Automatic annotation (TrEMBL):
<keyword id="KW-0175">Coiled coil</keyword>
<feature type="coiled-coil region">
    <location>
        <begin position="116"/>
        <end position="143"/>
    </location>
</feature>
<keyword id="KW-0433">Leucine-rich repeat</keyword>
<keyword id="KW-0067">ATP-binding</keyword>
<feature type="domain" description="NB-ARC">
    <location>
        <begin position="221"/>
        <end position="308"/>
    </location>
</feature>
<dbReference type="InterPro" id="IPR056789">
    <property type="entry name" value="LRR_R13L1-DRL21"/>
</dbReference>
<dbReference type="InterPro" id="IPR038005">
    <property type="entry name" value="RX-like_CC"/>
</dbReference>
<keyword id="KW-0677">Repeat</keyword>
<dbReference type="Pfam" id="PF18052">
    <property type="entry name" value="Rx_N"/>
</dbReference>
<feature type="domain" description="Disease resistance N-terminal">
    <location>
        <begin position="15"/>
        <end position="99"/>
    </location>
</feature>
<feature type="coiled-coil region">
    <location>
        <begin position="31"/>
        <end position="58"/>
    </location>
</feature>
<dbReference type="InterPro" id="IPR027417">
    <property type="entry name" value="P-loop_NTPase"/>
</dbReference>
<dbReference type="Pfam" id="PF23559">
    <property type="entry name" value="WHD_DRP"/>
</dbReference>
<dbReference type="InterPro" id="IPR002182">
    <property type="entry name" value="NB-ARC"/>
</dbReference>
<keyword id="KW-0547">Nucleotide-binding</keyword>
<dbReference type="InterPro" id="IPR036388">
    <property type="entry name" value="WH-like_DNA-bd_sf"/>
</dbReference>
<keyword id="KW-0611">Plant defense</keyword>
Amino acid sequence: MSIIGEAVLTASVQLLLKKLVSSELLRSPGQEKIQAELKQWERKLNAINAVLADAEEKQITNPAVKTWLVELQILAYDVEDILDEFSTKLSLESEATTSKAKRLLVNLKPPSVKFNAKMRSKIKEITKRLQEITDEKNELKLIANSEERPNKVREGRIPTTSLKEAHVYGREKDQEAIIELLLKNESNEGGLSVIPIVGIGGVGKTTLAQNGNASNSEGPRDSSDLNKLQVELKGKLLGKKFLIVLDDIWSENPNKLESLLRPFKSNSPGGKIIVTTRSDNISSMVGTRPAYPLRGLSDDDCLSIFAHHSLGREGFNGHPEYLKKIGENIVKRCKGLPLAAKTLGGLLRNNTSSYWEHVLNSKIWNLPTKEGDIMPALRLSYHYLPSYLKPCFAYCSLLPKDYEFEKEEIILLWMAQGFLQQKDSTEEQMEDLGDSYFRELQSRSFFQQSSTGSSDTSRYVMHDLINDLAQWVAGEFLLRMENVVEGDNNRERKISKNLRHLSYIGHGRCDGIKTFEAFYGVKSLSNLTYNGGLSNGVKMFEAFNDLRHLRTFLPFLPSPSIGNYLSWDILNVLPKLRRLRILSLKGYEITELSDAIGDLEHLRYLDLSDTAIEVLSNSVGRLYNLQTLKLEGCSNLKKWCEGMENLCNLRYLSFSSTFDLEGMPSKIGKLVSLRTLSEFVVGKSTDCGLKELKSLKHLRGSLRISSLENVNDAMDAKEADLSSKKNLTVLVLEWTRRAPRNERKEIEVLDMLQPCNEKLEKLTISYYGGTMFPTWLGNTSFSNLVYLEFEGCSNCTSLPSVGQLPSLKELYIQGMSAIKTVGQEFYGNCCATPFPKLEIITLKQMNEWAEWEDGELPQLRELTIIECPKLQGRLPKHLPSLKKLFIYGCDQLLVSVLSLSSDCDIDIYGCKQVEHRNTIGLSSLNPLVFSDVASHMFLINHFRQRVSEVEYVSIVGYEEATSSRHTGITSQRDVKDDFACLTKLPQALHSFSFLRSMCIANCPGLVSFSGAGLPSQLKSIRIEFSDALKSLPESWMDNTSLECLSIYKCGSLTYLARNQLPPNLKKLEIRFCDHLQNLMQEEKNTSPSSISSSFITSELPATIEYIAIEQCSNLRSLSSSGNLPKALEKIEILYCSSLVSFPVGELPSMNLVTIRIKGCEKLVAFTDNMLQLNPLQVTGSDCSRLCFFPEGRLSSANLTQLMIEIRDCSSLVAFPYGGLPFTNLTKLTIEKCGKLEVLPNRLQQLSHLRKIEISNCSSLVSFPDGGLPSTSLTELIIKNCEKLESLPNSMHNLTSLRELEVENCPGIKSFPPEDGFAPNLTSLAIRKLKIFKPLSQWGLHRLTSLEFLHIEGCPDVVSFPMEELLPASLIALEITDFPSLTCLSSPIQYLSSLKGLQFSKCPKLKSFPKKGLPLSLLALSIHQCPLLEQKCKKSRGKYWPLIAHIPRIEINNRVEDLKFLIS
């Protein structure tokens, strides 16, 4: 049972009373009768307000009271709407001083603010309803409370300490158990271990999973394309061990679960997955071991959580014993759920003991509950919220589960709904009030901070159970539609006629009218016919009539990058919902707005971000009450609307990333209510110049002022009056980079743009053309400034005195190419302690900078200097706090590490010299990177006694080879000759006892290494661009810790080692080593003509899991023994043009899953022993001599999966006569095998074969006589086989076949097949074939599962009888290259599931069926059909009314993948 009757009611009634008291109607002359009515409203609403607390309690057990509250809420909405209407008219009348404003007033309806009979009738109706509600109140015997419920902070409240970071209580044993399970080795499919954690909602599954492992995130990914995400994930995990957490899995669909786990099962031995779920069924379906059941916490642990959130400490020390007793009794009712304890603790924080008792004794604890209901503890947390927070929280029920939101986003929505009303006698801004409300809800655990937010932008989420709670309290006034897909039976949803707020989760790409079918006042969409057309949504609005009171239309769409479309009819309906206060079209591919948008006189919030809109409709200028206008990411927007200056209530205007939009709206200075303005683009005309900022006194937060070169008069900058805008925290002052410059004027402009120093935290000055900075820049009055940036100020010859800024933490300087000296003026000549808090300095691309005078930087933690080629001398000496030093491209600089702390990370890529001494403490230096090896290699010798904990060393020669890998910085520097003299590495490397990884790059003279071996714990070596290297030292081959060896572009390398490779090597990668002949060389030289004698007869290390050899043109064979390592999982041989054969010995049968061979022109044969592999993917491509495929019988009963891909093997003529020996073959791909005439025999016996793809085999004549496997084959693709004479026999028997695609096979002599198509096809594509039967005889209507149909190339078809041809199951239909087609000769409406329709290359097609197209259509594409294109032109074409309901319409623009678009 919901208690939504009161959710927003108390606040609504109080807001109404405030509006009535302050209403201009009460002071407006000539409205005495109306004023008397309003006074009567006020009296009755006060009486009702007095009993609301009693009604809230009684509604729990008395349904009549609940009904009364619902009726009262409806009345409150209607009264607010009428007051808004009246207030708008009166305000416009008072402001109508210009002719333009008068015209605006005339355009608004009704035309006069004098109340006509209709308005008086509305007031009379409200008065009547209000009296009825008052009478019912008396009948229900509701009692006025003399005291307010204790829901506010009171005097004598229980004190708290400041809350610490959240702590996990009572899960130590659970954490240990999960870690033990993770460390346990299990033998199962693919080595994958899936550990389910099962428990009820709120018990802490996610927290346990997060704390049971160390997180290593690469950041968020766009999840709108699951297939793309899976492919990327599979590639990332290939051959690696991993730990993945799949949190909060709900779906019990086995196919979806299998799809979810598929990327983790493929080629990833030793992988671990933790799955958290509430369902035992899910755990049994995905788990490789029994589920770990997570139980509730003990009462003691729950009490610790409760105390932490209510008192700010872990216990009740310092508080009365009776308070602890109350807490214990409350915690017992939390039933061991930490979320409940946390939420109730937040509720009781800062409240009195009597309030605690009130909560403990609440009747809500005793409400009957059933499985799936909201737990009483969470109900209480809502029930005892202050009344002003309840509507704010209830409104959040519109947010999707797991939706991450920014605080500002929610506050703007609350503001638009009128939830943020300032208290009397206070000047508190609505934005500040919203921030206070938000923080209060966060402190009560209704919101929690997301882990994906950046340092600049915090994002928040609602826990699933809190989201459920919001849904529960939302009742019938708020609705979030989820999983709405076209074709769903939405009409069964029960939508209340009282609905006021709607959000929906777009299913992706297209939202048509069926998305909103649930709201239509008709039984079914089929009743909405096109008789006379559905133009402009008139009939649709009649069906939408129940939504006429809607206040919120808020879609949440997938990523805008994939393209989302909304029906034009829906766009036309929205402006007719005249009560809308919030309208979002964010992310839809709409290009224009209806002019009727200006009729939404209640509209406060309009979001057009990420749309394709080109011109902002002038009607937007009529939205008098608009508070928020978002145009972010409207990259096509070119023009502001006229009349923007009329939006006198606009508080928020954001238009970032609108690259084609020039200048600002005319007379923007009239928008005196603006609080947030993302950017001010200085225009050249007077009415959009810089002085327009003068009247925008309330600007706050961030402001970017760009195109400052357009300032005509420096006095305009003074008139902008930035110094009075005390609420600005971030300011960017920007000139255009390559604009004509006026140096003197720019100096004056910047001097006069001095901002207010009170709250400014960040200041950026970009591309300023003056030679000097104003004195205000270093003023100590900027006491809150923490970030300062100068970019591209290339004419300035000195830096400002910023050393005296007391709070500055980060300084970023780039492109100041005229600076030659950084002297004492930088530190502040009169400053005793310069830069007292500066932690980060970045200095980039200062081409003339030569000297940096010494000075103190006591708190500096990070110093970065990049591409300052003339910088000489030394860095400042006093850097006691430095933790990170990065130097790049400073060839004249002397770097001293004498005073650096032992834990400082050092990256040096190019400097003159490094100063050091033997006693330098670098015991924990990590990482250590040096460039210019010839100059710095002595460091290793001197540091060898103090580098025991260094884990990574990079020895780099030429800069351009390392720049992208290490720093992401590109460089055009020339190769230096100094490095050619380096012939060997020092023995001191052996001293790095904790070294894990080493990279040696760009050492062209390096011939050999020291004989001392490798550090004992080294795991990875990468050697690249060292052309003199011929082999690796034998002393390395005994190293038992080395696991990864990578060699790249070492042109002289002929072999790796003489006797063996490191015994525990797991990954071997050799690329672009043209002279490599052998992996291992025999001790004794033999004849080079013998392949087998070219390699040592000993085995490769048995531990190797991955081998990759690429473009080693002299490599002829892999192993003389013929055997590959038993642990091998994947082997790739690419473009090794001398490779003749694959190993002939025994291959690993249990682990090898991928053999990829490409571009090996001399490869003649694979090995018979491939038959033993399990599972296996064989890819052979660009192997023009390959002519042999293995024969024999399957020798391994364990084979579970085999995929064979053969591409560009132009010598392959045939397969073994006996057919393929792989009974468990799952996929067969043959492409560009020009001599292949027949496919393998006995394909019908391959009972696991699921997919066959044959393409570009120009000599292929036929399929085997036996046909194809009838029970396993699901997909058959045949393309560009010109000589193929027929499709496989017995196609009608292929009951498992779902997808058939045949293209450009002109030799087929009978099509369609005589015996018909496979009966269960879901997708059929026929392109460029010779058709021997009329379409009507194909039997397509019998394919009752067919969903996707594409027919291309039917030259004789004149009409297309849809009803006779096509099954009703069809979802997408493409008709291409029908040169004689003139019409669709029968109705298409019966295709009620059709979502996509495309006509291409039908030059004579000129008409649609008279009854139009199905309402289910999401996408229509008309390409190269000139007669039809004219009739379908937007708004003007004859057929536009027939197609306006379709979200995506492409005229003369073919949709390449219609199936993907709508699937």
